[in-house]
């Protein structure tokens, strides 16, 4: 599952076309938008960067799917967020793990 | 090291006192979110602040000068040249809280905005009065006016309406010293003094931070139409554009999509009805209903003579919006062409004189064939501005090697054809290495200005080869 998540977020070209559709970004700050969340997941998997703030970013997502609809690359953003949450809950992602080495 | 850490702590506390605890962060994960834009360049800041007014920004810049730390202004992070990427670390100043439209002055055809106003929001507001800010970037729904000004952006209607530079009347700027200065004039024209406004448009935050802008606006045209002309040959399409201008026409926009770009559009929205040909030109004309009708006829004639295989006119609002939104999305939609591939924004903004557009199109195709990459080409062909899209598997290092070579060849060709590496996206870090070739001695003039205004080089260092 971790590999699927990684491959999906690695396809993000940072274009930002998803962002205007995000209801939480409108009410909140930049890192709590879809592009910020995709990057948060990517950085957690790639560089083992996981903080309270980034977990908060993941959990403030409404999983409403508006961003996925607008993604020109058709990245399944909401599903990735959901799967990442599950991985967090199941203890599959912890700070200090060499997650990327395990998935690649 | 210990001393360094305590000094940084001191700076952090002082910045916190300026913007408030909720508007400052140094959380490792949060900082990463401000480490990128649309380009492949990355750089991590040490601190992110989110000020709400010019005097806060002035305090931030003064502190940065005192502590000799870089300041990088940032809007929506939708730039494509790394302009907002903190390549030298430092403080990212995020301007999206400053998102108010301060004044809509219809009598004087102008509007005053803060830098964080999103482009599309400004035009939605102006439409209520029957007016618009004609600059029209594809990233309208996310790009901020501050970013548009600082990158010298433009967009699809630049053929007739020009670029951001043509619409900025007055700017309030926080200079690298922290001083807040207003430049330009409220008058429709002014011949007084150096044109500092034009200097700051496109300065990419290297000379200061724009905190307020007075922009020219225009009445919305009464009528618009779109002519779609299909060609079985890329060069023929390029020549049709040259012939259009020679026929005395100035459409509001002329866009081109090549075969792969058309495929990307169809993949993104399968319902869209456009022919799959080698090249598709989209001409937009606007004005009075009668004028639009006449221009449509002339464009049809020119295209027929230039060898178009199919011509179609879209006048219904539904079809019009569908085609334009598909065009705005095509660049990013190229990522959907292949599930393993991603579009990388490199060499994506070359611009050449109109008469050299056909040659530039051929050159891009040649370079693609040489390296075995199908380069997706589309763009604002009416202003000589092409957006070749390089699509690669980003997890494969050898594809990156190929990408850098292609990028270099495309951009060098554009310069050789009398053009520039960037028509509207800016230099940032992506095109810094071409500055000397594009500007020669003039680059030294730019460096002199930079040194005079920012002697400690704190404003967005590492950009534009300054």
Please give a structural write-up.
The complex is a heterodimer of chains A (104) and B (466). Chain A is mainly α. Chain A has seven helices and no strands. Chain A has helices spanning 2-9, 23-27, 34-47, 52-59, 66-70, 77-89, 99-103. Chain B is of the alpha+beta class and 466 residues long. Helix content of chain B is 37%, strand content 18%. Chain B contains 15 helices and 19 strands. A six-stranded antiparallel sheet of chain B has the order 15-12-14-13-17-18. In chain B, helix 1 (2-19) packs antiparallel against helix 3, helix 8 (234-246) crosses helix 10 and helix 9 (259-268) packs across helix 11. Chain B is globular and about 70 Å long. The two termini of chain B are 30 Å apart. Chain A binds chain B through residues 10-17, 19-20, 29-31, 35-36, 39-40, 43-44, 47, 49-54, 57, 72-74, and chain B through 25, 27-30, 32-34, 36-39, 50, 76-78, 94, 96, 118, 120, 139, 141-142, 268, 329, 331-333, 335-336, 339, 341-345, 394-395.
Brief summary of the model shown:
Chain A is an all-alpha fold and about 100 residues long.
Comma- or semicolon-separated keywords:
heterodimer; A: about 100 residues; mainly alpha; Fumarate Reductase Iron-sulfur Protein, Chain B, domain 2; B: about 475 residues; alpha+beta; 6-stranded antiparallel β-sheet; 5-stranded antiparallel β-sheet; about 35% helix
What topology emerges from the helices and strands here?
The complex is a heterodimer of chains A (104) and B (466).
Chain A: H1 2-9, H2 23-27, H3 34-47, H4 52-59, H5 66-70, H6 77-89, H7 99-103
Chain B: H1 2-19, E1 24-25, H2 28-33, E2 47-49, H3 54-67, E3 71-74, E4 91-94, E5 101-105, E6 110-113, H4 119-127, E7 131-132, H5 145-151, H6 158-161, E8 168-174, E9 180-184, H7 196-200, E10 209-216, E11 218-219, E12 223-231, H8 234-246, E13 253-258, H9 259-268, E14 279-287, H10 289-305, E15 310-314, H11 317-333, E16 342-344, H12 357-371, E17 378-380, E18 385-386, E19 390-392, H13 397-416, H14 435-439, H15 441-453
Parallel strand pairs in B: 2-4, 3-4
Antiparallel strand pairs in B: 1-2, 5-6, 6-10, 7-11, 8-9, 8-10, 12-14, 12-15, 13-14, 13-17, 16-19, 17-18
């Amino acid at each position: 599952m971790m590999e699927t998540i990684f491959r999906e977020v690695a396809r993000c070209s940072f274009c930002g076309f998803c962002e205007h559709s995000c209801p939480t970004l409108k009410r909140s700050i930049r890192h709590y938008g879809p592009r910020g969340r995709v990057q948060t997941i990517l950085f957690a998997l790639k560089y083992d960067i996981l903080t309270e703030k980034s977990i908060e970013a993941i959990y403030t997502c409404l999983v409403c799917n508006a961003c996925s609809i607008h993604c020109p690359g058709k990245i399944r953003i909401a599903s990735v967020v959901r799967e990442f949450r599950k991985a967090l809950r199941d203890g599959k992602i912890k700070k200090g793990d060499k997650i990327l080495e395990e998935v690649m | 090291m210990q001393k360094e850490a305590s000094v940084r702590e001191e700076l952090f506390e002082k910045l916190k006192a300026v913007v408030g605890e909720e508007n400052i962060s140094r959380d490792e994960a949060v900082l990463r979110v401000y480490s990128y834009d649309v380009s492949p360049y990355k750089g991590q800041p040490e601190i992110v602040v989110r000020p709400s007014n010019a005097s806060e920004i002035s305090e931030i810049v003064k502190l940065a000068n005192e502590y000799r730390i870089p300041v990088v202004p940032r809007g929506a992070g939708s730039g494509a040249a790394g302009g907002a990427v903190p390549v030298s670390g430092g403080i990212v100043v995020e301007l999206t809280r400053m998102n108010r439209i301060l004044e809509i002055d219809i009598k004087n055809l102008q509007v005053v905005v803060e830098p964080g106003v999103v482009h599309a929001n400004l035009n939605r507001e102006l439409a209520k009065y029957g007016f618009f800010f004609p600059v029209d970037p594809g990233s309208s729904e996310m790009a901020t006016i501050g970013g548009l000004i600082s990158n010298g952006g433009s967009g699809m209607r630049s053929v007739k309406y020009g670029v951001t530079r043509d619409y900025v009347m007055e700017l309030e700027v926080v200079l690298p010293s922290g001083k807040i200065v207003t430049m330009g004039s409220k008058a429709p024209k002014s011949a007084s003094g150096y044109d500092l406004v034009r200097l700051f448009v496109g300065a990419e935050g290297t000379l200061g931070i724009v905190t307020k802008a007075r922009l020219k606006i225009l009445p919305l045209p009464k009528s618009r139409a779109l002519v779609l002309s299909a060609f079985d040959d890329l060069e023929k399409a390029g020549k049709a554009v040259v012939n259009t201008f020679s026929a005395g026409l100035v459409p509001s926009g002329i866009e081109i999509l090549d075969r792969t770009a058309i495929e990307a559009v169809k993949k993104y929205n399968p319902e869209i009805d456009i022919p799959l040909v080698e090249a598709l030109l989209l001409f937009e004309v606007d004005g009075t209903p009668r004028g639009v009708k006449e221009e449509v006829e002339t464009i049809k004639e020119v295209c027929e003579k230039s060898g178009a295989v199919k011509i179609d006119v879209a006048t219904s609002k539904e079809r019009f919006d569908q085609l334009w939104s598909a065009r705005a999305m095509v660049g990013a939609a190229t990522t959907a062409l292949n599930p393993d591939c991603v579009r990388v924004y490199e060499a994506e903004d070359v611009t050449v004189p109109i008469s050299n557009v056909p040659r530039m199109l051929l050159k891009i195709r040649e370079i693609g064939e040489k390296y075995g990459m199908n380069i997706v080409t589309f763009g604002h062909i009416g202003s000589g501005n092409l957006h070749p899209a390089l699509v690669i598997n980003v997890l494969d290092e050898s594809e990156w090697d190929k990408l850098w070579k292609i990028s270099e060849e495309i951009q060098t060709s554009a310069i050789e054809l009398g053009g520039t590496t960037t028509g509207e996206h800016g230099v940032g870090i992506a095109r810094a290495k071409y500055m000397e070739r594009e500007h020669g001695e003039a680059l030294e003039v730019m460096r002199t200005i930079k040194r005079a205004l920012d002697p400690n080089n704190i404003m967005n260092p590492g950009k534009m080869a300054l």
